[in-house]
Amino acid sequence: MFLRSWRCHPKLILTEETLGLTQKESQKVDIARDFISRVDHILKNHSGTGMKILKFVIRDCYNVNTCHLNSWLQKAITQGIEEVSLFLPRKSSKDCNFPCSILLDGRGNSIRYLHLTYCAFRPTVGFDCLRSLTKLHLYQVCITGDELGCLISDCFALEELDLCVCRELICLKIPFWLERLSCLSVCDCNALQVIESTAPNLSTFDFYGEPVQLVLGESSKVKNLKVDFSSEPNFLSYAITNLPSIVPHLETLTVSSTCERVSTPMVPDKFLHVKHLNIYLGGGDDGAVTPTYDYLSLASFLDACPVLERFILSVNQGGMQHDSVFGDASSHLRQIPVCKHGGLKKVQINGFCSAKSIVELTCHILKNATSLEGLTLDCIFGAEAVSDPVRCSARKSGKCMSKSSRMVLEAHRALSVVKRYIVHRIPSTVKLNVGEPCIRCHAIDVKLL
């Protein structure tokens, strides 16, 4: 009875764990032979009836050849299957072609989720085998823009498209008839030059990689955007200047930059609907945010978002090179013309430091955010448990993430900044949360200049 039910089992998750091979980690030849043998045995005895979910995780050391893989897929992908996940070895990406023919005769039209890695996928004109597909994830898959167009042209149910390290993509076009597509993610497709979408209900778009031309159409309804042109200097200036017209209906905007050399400009165009703004600034080659960048200029982003409710600034740097508020330049804090941010309620600065311009930005917010309810200043970037003086208590290891002594020293300086320059400016209606250095992992003797 058990054997009969197993032969019709709806889920086949074929990994070294499920096949009981992890205990032979040091015996690579044996584990490779056993993997192939056990998968052969399982698929030989499985009827194919009732199959819903298929997942292969094949490691480099298994030496699975294309003939083996194609025969397994031919046996396992049957009519009625709904999910196919194929995690192939890294070395297979050059010579492994996903056999499109196995999706013919109606076997592909029931698939709702398809996840492929390290292979080539070469659909041709007329490929209409994935009519029920709702989620498509391609990681390190060799596929051109035209081939991807053939793949998704008849995927009328597609809701989510995720493309990562697909190096043959040069132009990505999303047609208007993909009415259900709501989420698009593109990461490190570094040959890509243009992303053009006329999908009418695309609402969430994440992009990371080399600069591309974004064409989202006049009717774009993108409301959530994360974007990082990885090698673009002064990307914040590009974002505030260009994005209001490209994505006019944004409600949540996340922008990242690791090379800001000039101040963020004031612009006439506005993000009229942005309520949540997240800005990430990372250190460059020397681990520090460029000292020429003026944090106070971020007030222009606040000005460009008239209905902003939440602002998160994250500064990840190995060393602070800006003029310190403790130095000679601290004789007075600069103020810019009054610009009320009446809707701003929550502000969080992760990686708060002693840079004079970041202190000036914080003071500007306290003065002009008339509806502010909470301000969080975390002196340790990437730490947990802001309200706990033992920061590592939230981590299973019982120890904080490793930080350089220079960064820990700067965190202690930042804590002194909060006490000296910020606390007395906090209105009674605003709750201040301060993420201090961990009293156990970041305890050092600090002598402020």
UniProtKB/TrEMBL annotation:
<feature type="domain" description="At1g61320/AtMIF1 LRR">
    <location>
        <begin position="42"/>
        <end position="438"/>
    </location>
</feature>
<dbReference type="InterPro" id="IPR053772">
    <property type="entry name" value="At1g61320/At1g61330-like"/>
</dbReference>
<dbReference type="Pfam" id="PF23622">
    <property type="entry name" value="LRR_At1g61320_AtMIF1"/>
</dbReference>
<dbReference type="InterPro" id="IPR055357">
    <property type="entry name" value="LRR_At1g61320_AtMIF1"/>
</dbReference>
<protein>
    <recommendedName>
        <fullName>At1g61320/AtMIF1 LRR domain-containing protein</fullName>
    </recommendedName>
</protein>
<dbReference type="InterPro" id="IPR032675">
    <property type="entry name" value="LRR_dom_sf"/>
</dbReference>
